[in-house]
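W.,

You were right to be curious about this one. When I first looked at the sequence I had no strong expectations either way, so I just let the prediction run and decided to look at it fresh. Below is the sequence, 43 residues in total, followed by the output.
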Amino acid sequence: MPKRRYEITDEPWRRIERLLSGKPGDPGRTAEDNRRFLSLREV
């Protein structure tokens, strides 16, 4: 059975992206791609 990948769509992403850490200006390391961490994979 092939793995299916679920990606957050643009509208929900725009609503939450500012709430996640790792943005430029936040203390610590800047995240490479926060959106990637919200992608879920069905196993």
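Here's what jumped out at me. The CA atoms of residues 4 and 29 lie 30 Å apart. And, maybe more interesting for your project: The first strand starts at residue 4 and ends at 6.

Coffee later to discuss?

I.
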